[in-house]
């Protein structure tokens, strides 16, 4: 049973940084395997992030597969059509959702996340939000953006690699 008290403390997750980083690393490792190209033993599922700095952060964490950016000068309808036509037609190799949606866990990111999710779900396309949901809980003290993970890549990297080795 957790030793922290109060609703605020319970909502923010475990107080121990090492435990929080292990939970984040496990979620990152799972998403890396889904994102990794098929010829490298992954499933080729794209990670959708907000901008170029977010892409640099996920690359620094070890994502080697496709990364799609929301902020590329397209309106939302064109982006949704592109994501749906490129990734959501047909079954996925792992049977999971075809996209990993990873927007920042601030107010703007939350609005983007729900907008993109709702539009894709209206086209009968599921999205994987597990990574964002876990990072939102465990990495909140370290920052509220995907790009803030870049500064933690040196400490998260070895733990992520440990989980990746365990996954095979």
What is the class in the CATH system? Alpha Beta
- Give the neighbour order of strands across the main sheet: 2-1-3-4
Radius of gyration: 16 Å
Which structural category fits the helices and strands? alpha/beta
Shape: globular
Number of extended strands: 4
Please describe what this structure looks like.
The protein has 168 residues and is α/β, with parallel strands linked by helices. The chain has a single domain, classed as Dna Topoisomerase Vi A Subunit, Chain: A, domain 2, CATH 3.40.1360. The protein is built from seven helices and four strands; from the N terminus they run H-H-E-H-E-H-E-H-E-H-H. The chain has helices at residues 7-12, 17-35, 52-61, 76-87, 107-122, 130-138, 153-167; strands at residues 47-49, 67-69, 99-101, 127-128. A four-stranded parallel sheet has the order 2-1-3-4. Helix 5 (107-122) links the parallel strand 3 and strand 4. Helix 2 runs antiparallel to helix 6 (130-138) and helix 2 packs across helix 7 (153-167). It is globular.
